[in-house]
Amino acid sequence: MPGKSRRDFLKSSALIGAGVAGISTTAKAGPDNILSEDRMGVLVDTTVCVGCRNCEWACKDAHNLPAGNLESYEDRKVLDTKRRPDHTALTVVNEYASGKNSNLPVDVKVQCMHCDHPACVSACIVGAFSKHENGAVTWDTDMCIGCRYCMAACPFQIPAFEYEKALNPMIMKCDFCIDRTKEGKVPACVSICPVEALTYGTRTELVKIARDRIKRNPDRYVDHIFGEYEVGGTSWMYLANKEFTELDFPKLGEKPAPGVSESIQHGIFAYFVPPVSLYALLGGIMWISKRRKELDEEIK
Amino acid sequence: MSHELHNPIPIKHKYFTPGVFVLVILAINGLVFLMGRFFFGIGAVTNLNNQYPWGLWIGVDVAAGVALAAGGFTTAALGHIMHKDEYHSIIRPALLTAMLGYTFVAIGVFVDIGRWYFIWHPLIMWNGNSALFEVGICVMIYVTVLYIEFLPVVTERFIGKVNLPGFLSGLNKIVDKVLRLLDKGLSKTMFIFIIAGVVLSSLHQSSLGTLMVIAGPKMHPLWQTPVLPLLFLLSAVAVGFPMVIFESLIASRSLGLKPEMPVLSKLGSMIAPLLGIYLAFKIGDMFIRETFVYLAEFNTASVMFTIEMLFGVIIPLRMFLSTKVLKSPLFLFIASALVVLGVLLNRINNFVVAYTPPYSTESYFPSFGEISVTVGFVAILVLVYRFIVLNFPVISLPGRQTAPQSKYTIRGVK
């Protein structure tokens, strides 16, 4: 008899195992994270940017957000306060005091960095975020449940949420103009920039360009391409003539943001072995302690 | 034989007292603000913003709620899996608290997420990399398991006493039969659910700790550590019994019953080692990562960390080592309450205090509306708990055994 029940047990566990395996192959196994060799990026040269904020207008225009007329963006008073991207503006320009060998203020365009190993893609409970082959990190409105874990996870504090909406609030962030790039156009901000502060190209190429600029003008730049290695590399990279921390960039390591949490997560759930073993262990303890109790009572 | 202390019955006591009225007012106040959240959006009621996406509701309603419902799986492990029959009288109250606690955790999530009508999405949209996905799925299954574990209380209440009103009375016999069938089925399979409950709890209690790991440097180093999942699990295990004692003593007081001191003292004697293990890991982690340097600074983080460790772990640990404390209802209550508040504070610290976003201009403090909703939920939970213990066989009266124990234990695990 014990032999039989053991066989039954094995049979049913095999069935459960097959079921689990079956489900996980048919369901969409997590969000996409494709890192193509030719993925695109943008190099932002903050020493070139003049703070005209045309990119802000172009971005709103391309994403059907209320943009106002372009002339109104000439007002430089806006630059007196530091702003962050939100649901009304997916990119903003902030101005800082001048850096080395220059009297001009430093203007920094802020938007999603489109990380190579994005924390938001790893964190999202429903896998609504995706890293695309062309480098863009985008978000699927129809999947999102509005938990805002992406905002807690993002090392650059980029995703914004529509807190004032009772129904269908959206997470908003730069989508690297994925609709435009699909048609072969360049992102709206890049295309409008009058001083070519933004360079659109493959990431590999951009790193080369950035290195070259630093090498040829060592007086003009600090020797650091922000985004080359930060959190495992980002699609958007920056050059500047002062330390990036002084320009409100976060101080980040070179390890991808989701690295630790994913290895913990996969450790706890490695092929469901730990939970299943725990179940078996507890079942064993339960059986032994019950048996011991019964023996005790028989002796009495 | 060990069936002396176990005889759960519906407690005879009036429902409304002045304290209950206060709870009703708090509950209504919370519901008013809750309506504001659903009609005008999260921003209308809370102080949350793009810098602080998570606040009181996630820190207390969800994270602390899950931790403080740990009495359910720790007592199940003790009473059912290790077969310590002498603790059976506290299993049902702990189970009820866990069931209600997790129900309110689910409601808390429902309220906090922006698109509440998509709360079912994780069931079909999977992201195995996400700690939140794991927590979500585990909590969903565990809530179901808790309801199944509670079913025998319902069948026990109604078997042989089914009395439907009016024309439905013709169905009395059939309903009774269904209940008996259910009871029989449950008694044969309950061990599956009991073990599952403990496994699921261990999984999501720890994964709740993984949640903030991904926030990386945005979280204060006093709390940010790769062993957070282990610390969350150990603290949940340590808070299980104190929470049971805390509630049991409040319930006895409020319902005019004699405190179950023999069981509670014994339960209390196990808390010190559990707290000790947690403390050892916490301090070990602090020394390995050399984060004690941050305690030399004087700021919100260092003060909150010190309060959490001193009043939430070290002082109650010392108290539980003393026999005098274990024998006195008052001291036992104080020590247990300290552990409960310590874990509550730890979850608030992890999710709210430690979280320092890079571009915040002012720090977050929960709005009156947020606090109202949280307090309102706690009030409703207590009101429902009171209703159930007055109408269902949950609390055992000491020294009044009338029937063999087997009839009253959770079926299937005599």
Helix content of chain B: 55-70%
Number of strands of chain B: 0
Q: What characteristic shape of chain A results from the CA principal axes?
A: elongated
Largest sheet of chain B: none
Instruction: Give the number of helices of chain B.
Output: 15
- The separation of the N and C termini of chain A measures 28 Å
- Give the strand order, joined by hyphens, for the main sheet of chain A: 8-1-9
What's the β-strand tally of chain A? 9
Radius of gyration of chain A: 26 Å
Fraction of residues in H or I helices of chain A: 25-40%
Share in β-strands of chain B: under 5%
Helix/strand-derived category of chain A reads alpha+beta
| Gyration radius from CA atoms of chain B, angstroms | 22 Å
Pattern of helices and strands of chain A: HEHEEHEEHEEHHEHEHH
Number of helical stretches of at least 4 residues of chain A = 9
Strand content of chain A: 5-15%
Uncertain spans of chain A: 1-29
Order of helices and strands of chain B: HHHHHHHHHHHHHHH
Shape of chain B: globular
Distance between the termini of chain B: 12 Å
Structure description:
The complex is a heterodimer of chains A (300) and B (414). Chain A is of the alpha+beta class. In chain A, a hairpin with a 5-residue loop joins β4 and β5. Chain A starts with a helix and ends with a helix. Chain B has 414 residues and is mostly helical. In chain B, 67% of the residues lie in helices and 0% in strands. Chain B is built from 15 helices and no strands. In chain B, α3 runs antiparallel to α5 and α4 crosses α9. The longest helix of chain B has 39 residues. Chain B is globular and about 70 Å long. The two termini of chain B are 12 Å apart. The N terminus and C terminus of chain B are likely disordered. Chains A and B meet through α3, α4, β6, α8 and α9 of A and α1, α2, α4, α6 and α7 of B.
Question: Main traits of this protein?
Answer:
heterodimer, A: 300 residues, alpha+beta, 3-stranded mixed β-sheet, two-stranded antiparallel sheet, 9 helices, 12% strand, elongated, disordered N terminus, B: 414 residues, mainly alpha, 15 helices, globular, disordered C terminus
